Model the fold of this input.
Amino acid sequence: MKKSIFILSFIILSGTIFGQKAEFLHILYKQLNQSDGLANNSLLTITQDDKGYIWVVTQYDGIQRYDGVRFQRFGQQFVDTISHFSKVRNLNFEHGQLIAQVDDSYYRFNYADGKFYQITVGADKKYSFVNNEGTRYTLTPVYVKLEYIQTPERNAVLKLPSPNAGSRSYVAYDQYDGKYWVAYYGQLVSLDIKSGKAVLVSQDNYPELYELFDKMGRHGFSNIYCDSDRNLWLNNWVGVLARYNLNTRKYYIYSMETGRRTNMLRNYNAGVTAFFEDNHHQVWIGSLGAGLMKYDKEEDLFRFFASDGKATEDIFNSEIRAFYQDKHENIWLGTSNGIRIFNPYRAEITVLNVRIKDFEQAITRNNSIEYAVQLKNGDIWVATWGNGVIVYDAELRIKKHYLFDDETSNMVWTIIEDKDDMVWLGCQAGNIRRFNKKTQRFEAPTKILNNISTIHGTVMDEEGNIYFGMNNGSIAKWDRAHKKFSLKRNGEKNQGVSRMITSIKLDSNQKLWARTQRYLYCFDNKTLVCKYSIPLVPLHLTIYKVGIEQGMTQYNDSLFVLASYFGKFGIFNVKSKNFAPLTLKENLALARILEVRKDGIGNIWFTTSNALYRLNPQHQLNNFVADKGLITSSFSKSSSSVMSDGR
Done:
C-alpha cells in the first residue's frame, strides 16, 4: 500500500483517488473565472511559456497571460471592436517563441514591448502532397493547408496538434512512423513525409479503418487524435466515438449514449470536444454533456468525474474545449465556464486549522504546533506550544481540547502512548502530564527527578521503557518494570554553544541516538552513558553559518539520513562514520531542512520552511506546496507521524 507522511505544521496528504467501482469519480480542482480577472469564461486554448506564465485564449476579448495572481490582456488587435469576438484560432509556445494563429496569418510575441508582430511561418519547411483525387496538402511546422481542385469552397488551413496540449483538431500525428492524419469533410488522409505521398483511406489500403469509417455513418469528423499506443481516436458530429489501433488494425466503437463499449454515460447528449494524453500516457477526453472522462485502457472503458461525488449540472454542462499540462504536472482545463486546474499525480496538502470556533478560548493563545501522533484507538493528539492539546478523531474531526491551569503544561513539545494505556506529554520546564485512558483524566503534573529542563523528544523501546531528550542535554529514562525514572546529565563543552537535544531516536537494533545542533550521540540504553559522539558541525564555524537543521531518520540498519552534516543533506553510515551527500537538482543548500522521515516504501520525506519534499529511492524529487494562503508559517522541527491508514 502506498504510504505518505503526516507532517506538521498540521497537514494531511490526500492524493486524488480514481475509484474503480464508483459511478462518479471524485476530483479536486481549482477554479479560475471572471471573478479572478479572466476576461471571458469561454476558453479556447491554453499554453505555457518558458518563463512559467500561463497564456489563454478566450472566445471573447482574446489573449491573456496569467502569472499565478492576476490576468493581463495582450493582442488587442486580434479582437473585433464591435462584437469583441477573438480572431485567434490557436496560441502555442514552441522553440522559445509564443506564436498566435490569427485566421490564416501568424504572429510572434515580443517580450520586450509586449506586442505581437506578424511573421512568415514555415516558408523554408513546406511539404506538398497530392492525393489520388487531386486534393493538394501543404504541410508546415504549424499548419496543414488543404486545396480542393474541384470544390475550392472547402479549402481550409488546419492547425497541427500541440505538445502538452489538447483541443479540437482535424490533424493527428503518429510519432511512431512520422505520419500526419487529416480528417476533414468526411475524408481521412495520411500524409507521409518520407514517401511524399498523401493516401486517401479506402477499402484497398486500410480495409478495417475504411469499414470503421463506414460504420460511423460517413458523417463529417469533428476530432482526430493519435496517442502513444498508436490508437487513432475519431469522433463525428453525431456523438460516435471510435478507437482504431494502427498496430493491430482493430477498431472499437463507443456509444456516447451508453458508454464503455456497452455502458458508461447513461443518456447524456454527449459529444467529444477534445482529446489529450498527459506525460504519464494517460488519455483524457473532454466533452459536452459528460464533462471530463479518463480512459482506462486496462478495462477499455471511460471513467468520468464529479466535483462533489454526484453529477452536478455544472460539471456535466461545462464544455471542455482545451487541455494543457504545465511544468508541475497540473492539468488545466479550458471550459465554457472558465478554467479548472487539477493534478492527478501530485498529492494535495490539506490544512487543519486549530482555531476552531467551538473552542473560542483557543483563539487568543499560541497555536504553534510542535507534534502530532495517532493513538491506538485512532484519535490524533496534537501538541501546541501554548494552547495545550487538541484531539481529533480518525476522520480529522475535532473531539476535545485540553487546557491546563499552569501555562508551562500548555506548552507541549512531544506526545507518546505507552503500553499501559497512558499518554505522556513532554512539556516546557520539564513538566510531564500523564493521561489515563481508562479514567479519561490527567494525573497531577510531575517532573523527572526535579529536572526543570524542557522535554524536546520522547521515544519508547520494545519493552515499553520511555526515553526523554531535554533542552539542557540530559537524557532520562522511565523504567517500565520498576516504575521509576533515571537521569543522566550530558553536555557539550563548546564555548557555551546551546546543547539542547533536538531529536532522539531508537534504531532497529534498539541503540539510542540523540542529536544536538553540533553532535550526533550514541547512548547505552541501559545505563544512559554516552558511548561515542560524531561531530556534525565544524568547531570553527558558528551554527548559524551552517544552519540549525534538526532532523534525522534511519535509512537501514547502519545508515541515517541527516538534515545537515557539515552543512549538507545526506546519508551518514554510523558504522563506518562515512557521510555521502545527496546531490539533488533542486538547490536546497539554504532551505533549512527541519524534519526528515522515511516511509514504509523507501521514500524520504523532509520539510523546508513552507515546502514538503519527497525523495524516492531513485533520488527523484517531488515538491508538495500548499496554497500560500493556507500555511503562513514554517513547519515545526522534528515533527511528523505516520497514521494507521498510511497517511
Notes: Helices lie at 207-215, 313-317, 407-410, 543-546. The radius of gyration is 31 Å. The first strand starts at residue 6 and ends at 7.
